[in-house]
Design goal:
- The chain has 25 helices and eight strands.
- The protein is an alpha+beta fold and 686 residues long.
- It has a five-stranded mixed sheet with strand order 2-4-5-7-6, with helices on one face. Strands 1-3-8 form a three-stranded antiparallel sheet.
- α13 packs antiparallel against α14, α13 runs parallel beside α15 and α17 packs antiparallel against α18.
- The radius of gyration is 37 Å and the shape is elongated.
Length: 686
């Protein structure tokens, strides 16, 4: 007689009855391990998932060879738990169901309560995780009935905990609250009850957070952590999940200092899903706290980890939070990466939902077939008792008719259930199709934006090339005649005039180099990057001071440059242009009633050299749509000033060519600080 999942997979054409046996260890090849058999037998009722795969295989083979049915049933449940928790291929769910079903068959045949409870526990958890709530509810109710029959209060509490979780996932919050609190009333002070209690408090905390009762959620989560720390089970995972509930509830209450909870979450487990969940939680905290850049980075890490762990619904949830946060003016490789990961996750979910629907149909088909087999067995038993007397024949006929009527009634109810499942399947397919259409529309918009951006870049490159070409010859002429004039009038002017003339010549030479670099950059940025050299920022900043000296004196301002003890790798002209633009802007946007004071400092933070330019100017009044680094972007407050909105866009382009980044902080009416992050730097003395 085929088992439940054997019927399913053979119907799919994936396995034969012979290949199904390959899911179990080959006991002829399993090596002997150093296991205390008496301890394993005495401890068979303690269901922990801490054994290695080799240890579980050996215990299974030992039970198989010694015909120890209870140890075999319990070890099969542990093997199923190991399979679903540690393996991540396409057939893992099928193997899990097959192994669990073997454990159930042995337990039901021998009336083993504890192994059967473990098997029901695994089925409830995994059917709920895969959103097969009808199957999960079926096994939860079977679990409750079996636990009450055994009279075990901890098992009864565990069964109710599963049912309460299912109701919460189906958003039946009031009934879920009632069932979960009923579960707590059955718990005792044993170690096993601590594990069940911790899970129950976790589900209550999650329920209250969904109902936006955040203080109650935090209280339940703290009680759960207290029990998890006393538990001998999978307490690290429980503590991680409970800590997450505390952190997210605190964030909703506006509390962003969650150092202790984050530490518990970060070090509780090393699984990719929990690491992804940790980064997702950090992203939510940073987003709620207004730290957009940090939130984006954490969401990106969470996205990749959850995809690698196969948690595709979480991938889509993260994508929905992440994509609106990205700049509308920036279509970068990471945007395309997010889109590709989201699209792959959608396809995976479609495949999973298809498997889940097949599983539902196969399960109800099996129930019907099992019922028919029971009828056939009953008929065979009755046939052996047939008497030669006609009255016995009549009685047998009546029994058969009664069974047929019952069978037809069962078949009618089963057909109604299957029809309901088909309706649900159609609705889910429609929703998936709608999601796919939305993704296709998003893809069209992304392609359109990319085309528009490429056209703008081409126009700017052409403009820069023409501008550089037209400026090149006049600037070269000014430099040449300036040098000739300097030779002829050196002895005829004062020392200070001679010094001023030298400033003019050096500034004109730098202008010539800038025009030459602009021409090269407009035609081949990569070639320009290959010409990087070691740069002393102190020299660059001194040149900028000299070229802006007249403007500084006109404003009666101060330019304070603290010595920099590091050098960077880059293009001198572009770096000069970067600092000249930023310092010139600081002078341009100074207050009319107050002389400008501009301070240039540097520091090393993590793996970056950060150069900061701070001023006491008019500041920037930020609005949601403002992106000061975008081309032609200008704030309302500076609209009366000279300029075309190209300066800061050029600064950002220069910094990115050098592998760095640029950001700023500003307080309107107080001043602005620009921070330039250089990746490639070295100590000056090195």
């Amino acid at each position: 007689m085929l088992s439940f999942w054997q019927t399913v997979v053979i119907a799919q054409g994936k396995y034969t009855t012979q290949t199904l046996n390959l899911m179990l260890p080959d006991c002829d090849t399993v090596k002997t391990l150093n296991i205390q058999f008496k301890e394993a037998l005495l401890d068979e009722n303690r269901f922990q998932y801490l054994e290695s795969k080799d240890t579980l295989n050996f215990i299974y083979c030992y039970a198989e060879k010694t015909n120890h049915a209870e140890l075999k049933a319990n070890t099969l449940a542990k093997l199923a738990a190991y399979t679903i928790n540690n393996e991540n291929d396409d057939d893992v769910f099928e193997r899990f169901i097959s192994i669990v079903n073997m454990s159930i068959e042995i337990s039901e045949k021998n009336n083993f309560i504890i192994p059967l409870a473990h098997a029901y526990d695994l089925l409830c958890s995994n059917f709920t995780t895969n959103r097969l709530y009808d199957l999960a509810t079926l096994y939860a109710n079977r679990f409750i009935g079996m636990a009450k029959e055994a009279g075990d209060s901890v098992l009864i509490a565990e069964a109710h905990m599963h049912l309460g979780r299912i109701l919460r996932e189906e958003k039946n919050y009031s009934e879920s609250d009632s069932i979960l609190n009923l579960s707590l009333t059955y718990l005792t002070g044993s170690g096993s009850s601590n594990r069940i209690g911790a899970w129950t408090f976790l589900h209550l905390a999650n329920l209250k957070r969904r109902e936006e009762k955040f203080m109650e959620a935090i209280a339940f989560a703290k009680r759960g952590i207290s029990l998890a720390q006393k538990s001998c089970g999978n307490s690290n995972f429980q503590i991680a999940a409970l800590s997450t509930e505390i952190i997210l509830s605190n964030v909703e209450l506006g509390i962003f200092e969650n150092e202790e909870g984050l530490k518990k979450l970060k070090y509780s487990t090393q699984s990719k899903w929990i690491k992804g969940h940790y980064n997702y939680t950090l992203g939510i905290m940073h987003e709620k706290n207004g730290q957009k850049s940090k939130a984006i980075n954490n969401y990106l890490d969470a996205l990749r980890l959850c995809y690698d762990a196969g948690v595709y619904q979480s991938v889509l949830d993260i994508s929905r939070r992440l994509l609106p946060m990205l700049s509308k003016h920036e279509i970068s490789p990471r945007v395309l990466e997010i889109y590709q990961i989201s699209q792959n996750a959608t396809q995976k979910l479609i495949q999973q939902n298809g498997s889940n629907n097949l599983l539902k149909a196969a399960f109800f088909k099996l129930e019907h077939e099992q019922y028919e087999r029971n009828l056939l067995q009953q008929e065979l038993v009755n046939s052996r008792k047939i008497s030669l007397f006609s009255i016995c024949l009549i009685l047998l006929f009546l029994v058969i008719m009664t069974l047929i009527i019952q069978q037809n009634e069962k078949a009618r109810k089963l057909n109604a259930s299957i029809n309901k499942l088909n309706v649900d399947l159609i609705e889910k397919n429609e929703k998936l199709e709608e999601s796919q259409n939305n993704l296709q529309e998003m893809n069209k918009k992304l392609n359109l934006i990319l085309e528009q951006r490429e056209k703008v870049i081409q126009r700017l490159q052409k403009f820069a090339s023409i501008l550089a070409h037209d400026f090149k010859e006049p600037v070269r002429t000014i430099v040449s005649f300036g040098k000739l004039l300097n030779k002829t009038i050196t002895d005829k002017i004062s020392d200070s005039e001679n010094e001023f003339f030298g400033f003019m010549i050096s500034s004109t030479e730098r202008l010539n180099l800038m025009v030459d670099r602009l021409y090269k950059y407009s035609n081949n940025t990569l070639a320009l990057m290959n010409q990087f050299q070691v740069i002393d920022l102190n020299i660059i900043l001194q040149d900028v001071r000299n070229d802006l000296l007249l403007k500084i004196n006109e404003k009666n301002g101060k330019l304070i440059i603290e010595p920099c003890s590091h050098r960077i790798s880059g293009d001198k002209i572009l770096i000069y242009q970067l600092f000249q633009n930023l310092i010139s802007n600081a002078l341009k946007y100074s207050k009319d009633e107050e002389p400008p004071v501009i301070t240039v400092t540097s520091r090393v933070e993590d793996t970056y050299l950060i150069v900061s330019i701070a001023d006491n100017g008019i500041g920037i009044k930020e609005t949601p749509e403002l992106d000061i680094f975008a081309l032609f972007s200008r704030t309302h407050e500076v609209s009366e000033k000279d300029g075309h909105g190209l300066g800061l866009a050029t600064c950002k382009e220069v910094v990115e060519i050098h592998g760095g980044k640029i950001d700023y902080s500003s307080e309107f009416g107080i001043g602005t600080t620009f921070n330039i992050w250089f990746k490639d730097f070295q100590i000056k003395s090195a």
